[in-house]
Design a protein that fits this description.
heterodimer; A: 318 residues; mainly alpha; 71% helix; elongated; B: 323 residues; 0% strand; flat
Chain lengths: 318, 323
């Protein structure tokens, strides 16, 4: 996941070129043309990115509203009715249970939907931790330079030297199993990539005249960083963060699969896959839906990230 | 050139020290929850005499930097500690498992190189064709795929369904037995391990070829009358291959280290599976020892890849690498 530069083909190049051609007249006409509006206009032309975005919004809506309707319509995701379990287990898909039931008679659709909550939470919380730590580290390294820069970038190297999943497993082994620690582990592990991107994009912005101008007018370092450098170097961070959400969801799934993440009976996609492993021969269908949920959601974030990269015109060559 | 290599090796040292500090802390009783003495002694009730002895023997009463110093001393003698559970030196256990991991990784890297490079060339040469779209789409899906899900899917398809349908099927577990030779056992895990990187290889190959395609010397080659195939094979490929080879080299390191999921799904008796079992048994020396070996190996492979890169591409060794 740390190779966004590999996807440097540009399916929306045509959109970009058109936009560039039209720009002058629209500018004459018009009010309210901002960089952000420009980016949005370019993003809208990228069908794959829009499909990805719609899918993400759909998943978020379902996950957020789950408590209102899922238990009533599909059934409780964790409750096991021992009196009916023999009859209810491993039912094929039906009107009442569109994805069928699992080995303990629970509705699979309901569990997939509640699993989405975990995955989205990991995506948001873990990536938020990662971005905050990464931004601070990157800003300090780039702005103060020298000794700070060396120490921060060498520790980034240390973190990047570890195989990702292995490091996450060790951290969780130390911190203890459970979903909060998955947030922390993924958050801690991801900061170097954000820090590196932000640092190099600050280097690009720092030399601009408006930064000199601000400094000569007596602006404080903090103000220069927050008001001038940050807004102008944030685009790559948005792109990397979006792509990283997909990676974070995959990592959570892997950790839960290995039994280190979300603990049963709480539903999570990786955990469901782990349960399905024991029934690979008798009920191979069990692995289908959680797997599809993971792939479509991760793919949606990857496509949206690709689209944002092109729309924001971020150069990802390191 | 020498100064470049020297600089890279100098950069290697602080990272190595950082890695050992992290791993030392992780296995250090000061960080790991629980009573260290009881963990080492392995008994519920530890008598005071045993406690004193263990504390002294493992230096638990010393300040933490002294403990780290002792840890490093042992490390340089090749002593990775003794497994709590198996009561054998960690080094021996890992050295037994390592060849299995390496075999799997080597087969996987060959699959990755062959299919990845072929797909990349195909989609670059026939740009915007049906094949290009197919490759782009399947690489996007491959990078979004959980490795273990792919592994399970392959197990169901080629191990279970093929058997049901009376077709020739493949073994789905372990690396020997069931009347199958090794090379049949390795197919499914190797494909699983190679899948994601295969997608990356194809993408790098494609974008590199396209980038090289726009260079002046390619136009010159066409202008002097070479056929399309000759241009691609003699001129584009040579230059486009450099980053691909580097990626493959780095990826071999990552495969040796990152095979924990694949090895677990296929019960492959390698280092990753051993580490996974050790984590579940709270057998820390195996975990930290195994990770240390893997990390150092990944770092050495990266270092060699960087240096070979400098040999292949003069711009790197003369350029300013401070940034």
């Amino acid at each position: 996941m740390n190779d966004p530069d590999l996807t440097s083909e540009a399916p929306v190049l045509t959109g970009l070129a058109e936009g560039a051609g039209k720009a002058p007249e629209e500018e004459v006409e018009g009010a309210g043309r901002t960089l952000r509006a420009d980016a949005w206009r370019r993003l809208r032309k990228n069908r794959l990115a829009i499909v990805g975005m719609c899918w993400i919004i759909f998943v978020i809506l379902i996950a957020v509203t789950a408590d209102l309707w899922v238990p009533r319509v599909l059934g409780d995701p964790t409750f096991i009715d021992t009196s009916t379990v023999a009859k209810m287990k491993l039912n094929p898909p039906s009107a009442a249970h569109p994805f069928g039931t699992d080995t303990l008679g629970r509705d699979i659709a309901s569990r997939v939907i509640y699993g989405a909550r975990v995955s989205l939470m990991v995506g948001v919380v873990a990536v938020a931790i990662m971005v905050v730590v990464g931004l601070i580290a990157g800003a300090v390294a780039a702005y103060y330079g020298g000794w700070w820069d060396s120490v921060i970038m060498r520790s980034a190297d240390v973190f990047l030297a570890f195989p990702y999943v292995l490091f996450a497993i060790i951290l969780i082994a130390v911190l203890g199993k459970g979903v909060q620690n998955v947030f922390i582990a993924i958050g801690i592990l991801g900061w170097p990539s954000i820090a590196r991107v932000f640092r190099s994009s600050i280097f690009g912005v720092k030399e601009n005249e408006y930064v000199d101008a601000a400094r000569s007018m007596g602006a404080s370092t903090r103000r220069i960083l927050l008001k001038h450098i940050m807004p102008n170097s944030i685009s790559p961070i948005i792109v990397v963060a979006t792509m990283t959400i997909g990676g974070a969801i995959l990592t959570e799934a892997a950790l839960s699969f290995l039994g280190m993440g979300v603990q049963p009976p709480a539903p999570s996609w990786g955990g469901m896959l782990s349960e399905s492993r024991s029934y690979l021969f008798s009920a191979p269908g069990l692995m289908l839906y959680p797997g599809i949920a993971i792939i479509t959601t991760v793919l949606a974030f990857v496509l949206l990230g690709d689209g944002l990269r092109d729309a924001l015109d971020v150069k990802m060559k390191e | 050139m020498l100064s470049y290599i020297g600089r890279r090796i100098l950069q290697f040292i602080p990272v190595f020290i950082g890695v050992t500090i992290l791993l030392f802390l992780v296995q250090s009783p000061a960080v790991v929850p629980g009573d260290p003495v009881r963990m080492i002694a392995g008994e519920r009730n530890v008598s005071d005499a045993v406690r004193a002895q263990v504390t002294k023997e493992f230096g638990l009463d010393k300040p933490i930097y002294v403990q780290y110093y002792r840890y490093m001393g042992k490390l340089f003698k090749g002593d990775l500690g003794v497994s709590y559970q198996r009561q054998r030196p960690v080094k021996d256990i890992l050295f037994e498992k390592f060849p299995n991991t390496l075999k799997l990784a080597l087969v996987a890297i060959v699959i990755e190189a062959v299919f990845g490079i072929a797909a990349g060339i195909l989609s670059a040469v026939k740009r915007y064709s049906f094949w290009d779209m197919l490759v782009t789409l399947s690489t996007s899906i491959l990078v979004s795929l959980p490795v273990f899900w792919l592994g399970m899917g392959l197990q169901i398809m080629f191990g279970i369904k093929f058997k049901e349908w009376g077709l020739p099927y493949l073994p789905v577990s372990g690396m020997s037995g069931d009347g199958f030779p090794f090379w049949l056992h390795v197919i499914l895990p190797a494909f699983t391990l190679a899948a994601v990187s295969m997608a990356y290889t194809a993408r790098i190959m494609r974008s590199q070829l396209l980038e090289v395609q726009g260079q002046d010397y390619i136009r010159t080659a066409s202008a002097k009358g070479l056929t399309g195939r000759q241009v691609v094979m003699r001129h584009s490929m040579r230059n486009a291959m450099i980053p691909v080879v580097t990626f493959l080299a780095i990826d071999l390191g990552a495969m040796v280290g990152g095979a924990i999921l694949t090895e677990t799904v296929f019960n492959w008796p390698g280092v990753g599976f051993t580490i996974f079992q050790a984590i579940n048994n709270l057998d820390w020396p195996i975990v930290t020892g195994g990770v240390l070996i893997i990390v150092v190996m990944v770092m050495v492979i990266n270092l060699m890849a960087d240096i070979s890169y400098a040999f292949m591409d003069p711009r790197i060794r003369y350029g300013n690498t401070a940034e």
